Amino acid sequence: MHFLSRTQEISAFCAAALVFVVLELVRRRRLSEEYSLLWVVASLAMAILGFFTPVLQGVTRLLGIRYESSTAFAFGVAFGILMLLQMSVQLSRMSRAQHALTRELALVRHELEALRGPGGAAQGHA
Amino acid sequence: MKAERVLVIVPAHDEEESLPRTLAALRERAPALDVLVIDDGSRDGTSRAARAAGVPVVRHPLNLGVGGALQTGFVYAVEHGYDIGVQFDADGQHDAADLGTLLAPVREGRCDVAIGSRYLTPTGYRAPRARRAGMRMFSLIVRMATGQRIADTTSGFRAYGRAVMDVCQFDLPQDFPDAPLLITLARRGFRLLEVPAHMHERHAGRSFYTLGKTLYYPYKNLLASLMALLKRPQSL
Fold first, then answer.
1. Cα–Cα distance measured from residue A11 to residue A69, given in angstroms and rounded to the nearest whole number
2. What is the predicted pLDDT for the residue at A118?
């Protein structure tokens, strides 16, 4: 296996380690499959670029980039941005769900208090 | 003709001081209407003040914003078979005596949403200059988007017909239900109508539109208004 630089060698092994860490997190159910997809794709892509120098050189030529290290760096940044965007989407979805649940909880509590009658209504409230 | 059931929805966040006067005014001026306070995660005695006035309260455990509170009111109104929902601020800025004027066009089927406007007739209210400029901008956006001329896009005094509440219980901007909501409703084919309304200084407490939100509000509302133009209406 031929590496162009020590940096490429280190980043290749780091990316490979990341693939294993992500898969292990999924296996232990610390990371759900839904969120793992982008991580697996990103770390696999980085590992492939790291271990297969002809692929890295080909992609670099294809994109018109001068140095191979810049290609690896560009891929890393692009995946970082994609992941942040995905997190914002998930956050928005969770926020909507949280609002719906808050509303439902408030309405159910209101019904419960109405059923209990005036005596039990104000317990534990501001 | 069957009399419509009207629910006055009062979104309230930390309005312990203002609320008793607002609810007393509603009881005095509109005794026939049902009132519901939505306590939007207040940290003061807002819920207590409402209960003391004999008004039912739905209390959010978290603060969702004016739109979130209004949406809860719509869900309640639809579940309890109300025909019209009125949005009425807790801070005493609105005049309960205007309720008849606000409800009339919805009752008569002349519109689906009636908006109590400070700018249709000289009512003594004069907003600060920056706010006036912002209001003109949003009014222009709403006009470009919907073809309807709405001078007071930020009015928190509105009456919504049943069909509007049916839709809004699922889809409503959460923090500021102003221009974006009007654009969304107009794009869904609902008819909007402005009616003259009076505007007073708030009784006490602080406005929903606090300093921190002064910068965020125009940005968010502008973006949300433009998005309301582009977004596909949520299928129900």
1. 10
2. 67
